[in-house]
Amino acid sequence: MQTRPLVSSDARPRLRRGVRLVHNEAQGGWVLLAPERLFKTDAVGVEIINRCTGEATLASIIDDLAATYSAPRERIEADVNALLTTLADKQLVEL
Amino acid sequence: MATNGYDLPKPIGLLAELTHRCPLGCPYCSNPLALEGKSGELDTETWARVFREAGALGVLQVHLSGGEPAARRDLTEITKAARDAGLYSNLITSGVGINAARLGELAGAGLDHVQISIQDSEAQSADHIAGYQGAFARKNALAVEVVRLGMPLTINMVVHRANVSRIGAMVALAVTMGARRVEIAHVQYYGWALKNRAQLMPTRPQVEEAIAAVEALRDRHKGEIVIDAVFPDYFARFPKPCVGGWGRRSLNVTPSGRVLPCHAAETIPGLEFWNVREYGLAHIWENSPAFRVFRGTSWMKEPCATCPRREIDFGGCRCQAFLLTGDARATDPVCELAPTHALIERLAAVHEDTAYAYRR
Q1: According to the model, what pLDDT value does residue B34 have?
Q2: Which residues of chain B, if any, have pLDDT below 70?
Q3: In chain A, what residues touch B56 (CB-CB under 8 Å)?
Q4: Which residue, among A17, A36, A39, A40, would best test binding to B if mutated, counting the most B CBs under 10 Å from its CB?
Q5: Does the beta-carbon distance from B60 to A91 stay under 8 Å?
Q6: Which of B306, B304, B293 is nearest to B333 (CA)?
Q7: Beta carbons within 10 angstroms of residue B39's beta carbon
Q8: Which of B59, B183, B218, B259 is the most exposed place for a label (fewest CB within 10 A)?
Q9: B67 Cβ neighbours under 8 A, 6+ residues apart
Q10: Would you say B50 and B16 are in contact if contact means Cβ atoms under 8 Å apart?
């Protein structure tokens, strides 16, 4: 395994063009759709992805989530980093 | 209705064959020998209803395909209907028949993704394979426009004996075009392609070289482009899990509205297909005889019936089993466990260098 650098806290993540988060009742929730690919996303994922507007910095996204859910910042940071590096590797998110 | 030992799955993909009309004449065309004509094609409003029904059924992605979908004058309206139904839309095009203005309209209608096929890395050979002078240049021009508009682009390359040695050059071309993804698909021998099997079949050394090349290309282009490759099943040990299992993940609507479990399913005689003009899509998905016949595993014979891989590859491809053995319930002969496997090895070694039978 290659070690990956953590996402920079100044990064302004956003979904790449052609990637869309859609809700489908029959599939039971939210799905991130990209060319020939789909990723079912849980509630935490949706909260993170919805904040990836290309304007908010990573640091502010983490602050916002930590405040909204009264959760420890370190845990939120770990969740956000894990999700965004996965999505960036799959070319779904631009960092 | 009772199910045959399975929970009714939810489809995720819909292949919408908007038309069988196509300007190209590719010898590996996977469409059936008998094409449906323009006069029998579904109208715009029927496609819009099919998309709404598909979304309600769980479908997430619609592939607007053909033939050449741009042969439909209402392609923009159809694309908008897909978007309005909440579906992710993927245009699968030859690149011939869509200029910059039309692409702009499609983007405005909410088109999510464009897939352009290329026949080779160089114009002369590519146009020869497509049977259409100037096709290569038009594909390149459309790719430029797709990228200029910021839309995601996939380049699809169908490989066979005449171009398999140039996979690297084709991937390099896709990178230059600005594609995010390439699909390397070895020809599958159904429909028209079966006519040209001996003209298209690669040799085993070519296939081995191609597999190694794809691995090297994935390393070289990691982070730059996603490479999806479909293994040539005549050279495999186990069959492909065709369409992810019959009536399990996807469905296909023909230009005239017949609903098929896979786009080659009409190959199998005796199947009863229902039409979207007569029934809702959910009803067809659940109850149409053509979907029920090979859904799940209870239809299987040995060696599939007790095979530990029966829910991995679902016995392989029903159409191929029928085409090569005459029995649609047989194990796909690609499988090394199939009693008919020797046939595949024999057919994979037949090569003829005569002219292609072009699709006209």
Answers
A1: 85
A2: 1-5
A3: 25-26
A4: A36
A5: no
A6: B304
A7: 6
A8: B218
A9: B17, B18, B19, B20, B21, B22, B31, B35, B255
A10: yes
